[in-house]
Amino acid sequence: MKYRLPIFITVLVVTAVFLFWIQPMLYSVKPDPNMPSCDKVRQCLKAEYLWPPKMQYCPAILAPLTVRKRAIDNKWGYSMDYEKCSTEQIIAPRFDVAEKFGNNGLAKVKDGDKWGYINLKGEDVIPPLFDEVGDFHYGLAPVKSNGKWGYVNTSGQVTIPLGFEAVSGGWRDGLSAVRAGGKWGYIDAKGETVIAPEFDRATEFVNGLAKVETGGKWGAVDTHGKVIIPLDFDVLLSTADPGLLLVARNRKYGYFDAKGVEIIPPNMIKPVQVRRDGSGAIQINLNEFALVPEGGNLWSDTVHLGGWFYHNATNEKMRFDENGKAQIWRKGEWFYINKQGKLIPESAQS
Prior knowledge:
Elements: H1 4-28, H2 37-47, H3 58-65, E1 66-70, E2 76-80, E3 89-95, E4 97-98, E5 107-111, E6 114-118, E7 124-130, E8 132-133, E9 140-145, E10 148-153, E11 158-164, E12 166-167, E13 175-180, E14 183-188, E15 193-199, E16 201-202, E17 209-214, E18 217-222, E19 227-233, E20 235-238, E21 244-249, E22 252-257, E23 262-268, E24 273-276, E25 282-285, E26 292-293, E27 308-310, E28 317-320, E29 326-330, E30 333-337, E31 343-345
Antiparallel strand pairs: 1-2, 2-3, 4-5, 5-6, 6-7, 8-9, 9-10, 10-11, 12-13, 13-14, 14-15, 16-17, 17-18, 18-19, 20-21, 21-22, 22-23, 24-25, 25-27, 26-27, 28-29, 29-30, 30-31
Helix pairs in contact: 2-3
């Protein structure tokens, strides 16, 4: 009996705290589909700092709705910019430059000649200490001080020391391009070197490949630094098909796939369209010249003109001569395709 009263009082206190303090906060951040737009924005702003878990839709709402506004004294602050909310101030103008908020609730701002990041309450999450800053990708942002670049996380901790001459800023396939000693290489999110800096230029990874250049010649490497396409081309370009790349050497064009297989040798006087069909097979649009017609016989004597044609590297070899005319390899000899679709032996053209 002697413990019942203290227990009862404890229960009452806990219940009161929940009903009068915690519960109102919880319910105040629940979305209401009928709530006016301005109230939704206010609620999101409050939810960001109120009680976990945060409302997941808030960053998506706040990022486009909070935009910079110029004040009379040429300082920047933030206000809502949605319907009747546009005059409501969120953060007082005090910055020389202010950028839009990202989905992580942070915005780049410049105070004097230094950059930092603020949150939606106007607090300096990362104080303005840097000469230049970039956008956050996968929780990391590039920052520059005293001529050197590194990376910080959303808490402002320098996770990758500022020791690089330049950085790409992105983290495609988990790697960032960095320049050290005048050469480009790649590091991972821990700052560890994955591909040694040995290239004159380097791009971000796309679908597991990055275009790199040395001595004016381009090629491609994979995420382990293995050369997939030799650094032997004047031009290396992506195409609409992420698995195909256009190359050029001495103003002659060809194609490679993402595995480094040469689809068309670089001897075309101009590029042709290349694509994959639904099964992944390579098709080539040669316009007036043709290889093997769609659905046609690989070894037929007549090749239809125009349209899309399959290229089977195992059974068919093709090339373009110095005049840009298409040739097909048949039974140990190169043949031209005439305008009637007939195959003419190369020897007959000389």
